[in-house]
Amino acid sequence: MEVCQTIAEIRKYVGRARERGIVGLVPTMGFFHDGHLTLMREAAKVCPTVVVSIFVNPLQFGPTEDFRDYPRQPERDLALAREAGVHAVFMPDTAEMYPLPPALFVQVERMDEVLCGRSRPSHFRGVATVVAKLFNVVAPDMAFFGQKDAQQLQIIRRMVRDLNFNLELRAVPTVRDSDGLALSSRNVYLDEKQRVAATVLFRSLDRAQEAIRSGERNREAVEKLMTGMISAESVAQLDYASVLSLPDLDPIEHLEGSVLLAVAARFGRARLIDNVIVKIGSDLKS
Ligand code: PAF
């Protein structure tokens, strides 16, 4: 496995690798868990060359957020990537990615104002900007993102479309612990009590899906159900429990077509998110 720290090195590597066929990129901020490894394995199924980027992107953290404390374990990550069959890791430092304070940002308007965008106002601008840079640097044919970050995924989809990036995006289903908790690098911040309480996110989504399966179509009723469950958990500080349309993340009153059920709450230091997609139609499934 090749480890590249500079843009010149990864470009040179990808230039050679392209002779073997298509190149897949898995953008990450490191501190791998099984969710990341699943992205890499999915990429390896269809791409003869898999590149993983590891870069904790300062641009997507707010001034009071956990950029400095964000968990980092580069040596362990490299060993795991090697085991997962990754061909190259692009691991730049901040000066390599941002030699100058950026003067140009990629912002997907409106979609970045809902859900997490309300409490993290510049987060998605930071994500879209760094992902656009990674796409320009690595020039992948395919890129793999987790469905767990549903809003990020829809924003990147829209960016790819609006800016004509010549690549295919693949969404990979959320990987969960046996009790339903979505895997996240920030789960490491949870103490025992918070870890148990955090399962309320998935439980609330599951209950909401059940209600929809039983015929509930009112957006407010579904949101109330999820809000009620999360607020009843004493350790949880609810951020949102929302139902929005897909793919545009628009507000809706009556549930139809594909809808996103999304929740976010704080458990101590950990701000966690989760979501499910429900497809409403003749054949109701999620
Ligand atoms: O999902 C993440 O880990 C990050 O937001 C991403 C896509 C790697 C951009 O920094």
Summarize the structure.
With 286 residues, the protein is of the alpha/beta class. The protein contains 10 helices and 9 strands. It has 2 domains: 171 residues, Rossmann fold (3-Layer(aba) Sandwich), CATH 3.40.50.620; 94 residues, Pantoate-beta-alanine ligase, C-terminal domain (Pantoate--beta-alanine Ligase, Chain: A,domain 2), CATH 3.30.1300.
Indicate the topology.
Layout: E1 2-4, H1 7-17, E2 23-28, H2 34-46, E3 49-54, H3 74-83, E4 88-90, H4 94-97, H5 116-119, H6 123-138, E5 142-146, H7 150-162, E6 168-172, H8 192-197, H9 200-213, H10 219-231, E7 236-245, E8 257-267, E9 270-280
Parallel strand pairs: 1-4, 2-3, 2-5, 3-4, 5-6
Antiparallel strand pairs: 7-8, 8-9
Question: Would you kindly provide a written description of the structure presented here, covering whatever features stand out?
Answer:
By secondary structure, this protein is an alpha/beta fold. The strands form two sheets. A six-stranded parallel sheet has the order 1-4-3-2-5-6, with helices on both faces. The chain has helices at 7-17, 34-46, 74-83, 94-97, 116-119, 123-138, 150-162, 192-197, 200-213, 219-231, and strands spanning 2-4, 23-28, 49-54, 88-90, 142-146, 168-172, 236-245, 257-267, 270-280. The protein is globular. The chain has ten helices and nine strands. Strand 5, helix 7 and strand 6 form a beta-alpha-beta unit. The protein folds into two domains: 2-172, HUPs (Rossmann fold), CATH 3.40.50.620; 185-278, Pantoate--beta-alanine Ligase, Chain: A,domain 2, CATH 3.30.1300.10. The mean pLDDT is 97. The site of pantoate has 10 residues, from strand 2 and helix 6.
